[in-house]
Amino acid sequence: VVRMQRRLVYSVLGDQRQGCEQCGWCCCWWSIEVRPAELERLRGYDWAGESARLRGVELFLEQGGQGRKQSSTYIAQIGGRCAFLEGDNRCLIHRVLGEEAKPAVCRGFPLVLGQTVEGVMVGVNCGCPAVMRNRGERFSQLEGQVLRLLNEADADPEGASGLLGEPIVARPVLKGSTRLSWGAYLELEGSVGEILSMPGQTLTAQAMAARALVRAAAARWEGQVAVVERDEMRGWLEGEGRGGYAAAFAGGGGKGRWLSRARKRGMARRIVRAEAAGSGDGETRGNRMDRMDGGDREDRWDQTDRMGWADGVEGIVRGEGRLWLSVLGGMVDLAAVEAMFGVESPGEGVLTRFLLNYVRGKSLLEAPSVVRGAEEMLSQLYMARWYAAASAVLGGRRCVGEGDVVRGVQAVERGRAIRGGGRSW
Ligand code: SF4
Ligand code: SF4
Fold it and tell me: Which residue's C-alpha comes closest to atom 4 of ligand 2?
């Protein structure tokens, strides 16, 4: 049995900052779960008396309760926004009862907490624009907030799973029967991070080289039923790192075609699926309200639906047709997105920050193996770029700007949360 410890391990970029700018993004789309003690506090208040728009609105919805899972309570949404989110993008609970009265998931955002063998990992959700633009307080100054959340999790072990998620596997699978000790994994992750920060290379080349390094590690220990220890990994990486990871860059194919048709089809499938899940009328997302007032949205989704699942995927692959993107709130012309897709933009710094925080936040371990995790990292990069291009097209811009890239990353983070990848949610 591997004991989990309570040491804080910051798993973000060293210079990372965060400070809420009230953009409201994290209060839209998500299903906000309310724990029993929080619900009791919130139910006893006359919310309609504070905000007339809440008159007659059922604020809390119960969901689930099938199979093993107990039912949970969620805050209702109105038009895709949390019912408590006011027109000025401020939280009504925060204004009336103070920050401490908000559900824990709200107070925790954009922190992503996870349990590892070396302690509690403190990562970050890159959907927050303040994180992506690196504005606000230094991350280390958020320690008090993290500790308060952890104390709460201790006091309420049932709710703790929601805050901390399942413990992160202590000996990750590299590929097949080869596992890594935690130390060896950290060495490999460190080298992936180094490659993603190498000067003089495009981000695409860096990401492909990072994947090539992980694959080379898998090839090195292929077929060995073994746990690779830290020293072994470190010795091997020293060799690979010589000459600025020249072998990884040569093997990454970074200069060649960066997106095969098969990969593009895979990406397209995921975009269409995420859009379908994100546009659902709430049977699965707990926002029954949407169904009542979201007629307009549904009409537009129907158009995509008539276009059909397969057509939507092929449309993205070939760059033909139109697709309703719920996440960006508009119908895009796929040929225009295709023309803009993959072009380097002023937002490359944002994308680099996203990928580095993604890797440090142990997202490579969300896949069944580190090799697949590295593949997934590439897919995330492609999808962020695709959505960034779509955002520029919707905004009528001739090139992809930094704001478009932030929206691209948000789309990807939202897709991950819908699939259950976002650990804090
Ligand atoms: S996404 Fe970030 S900046 Fe926007 S409301 Fe949430 S915490 Fe604040
Ligand atoms: S409860 Fe407040 S902080 Fe939480 S999602 Fe709703 S508006 Fe945002």
Answer: 106
In this predicted model, what pLDDT tens digit does every residue of 71-98 receive, in sequence order?
A: 889 999 998 899 999 999 999 999 999 9
The protein residue with its alpha carbon nearest to ligand 1, atom 4, reads 23
Report CA(347)–ligand 1 centroid distance (Å): 19
Ligand 2 centroid from CA 194, angstroms? 37
- The set of residues, in sequence order, having a beta carbon less than 8 Å from that of 305 and lying 6+ positions away, is none
* H-run or E-run covering 55: none
Give the least confident one: 222-226, 251-255, 263-267, 292-296.
292-296
Ligand approaching nearest to the C-alpha of 26: 1
Please name the residue ranges forming H helices in 54-142: 92-97, 104-108, 129-132
Q: Give the residue, by CA position, lying nearest to ligand 2 atom 8.
A: 27
Here the tokens at position 394 are 């919707």
C-alpha closest to that of 127 among 56, 263, 29, 257: 29
pLDDT digits (tens, 9 = 90+) for 321-344: 998 888 888 899 999 999 998 777
Ligand number, closest to the Cα atom of 29: 2
If you measure from the C-alpha of residue 107 to the centroid of ligand 2, how many angstroms do you get, rounded to a whole number? 9
Write down the pTM of the prediction.
0.86
Task: Tell me the C-alpha distance between 377 and 349, whole Å.
Answer: 16
What is the Cα–Cα distance from 197 to 353, expressed in whole angstroms? 9
Ligand 2 atom with the smallest distance to the CA of 90 is: 7
| 65, 321, 354, 399 from 205: Cα distances, Å | 46, 30, 16, 21
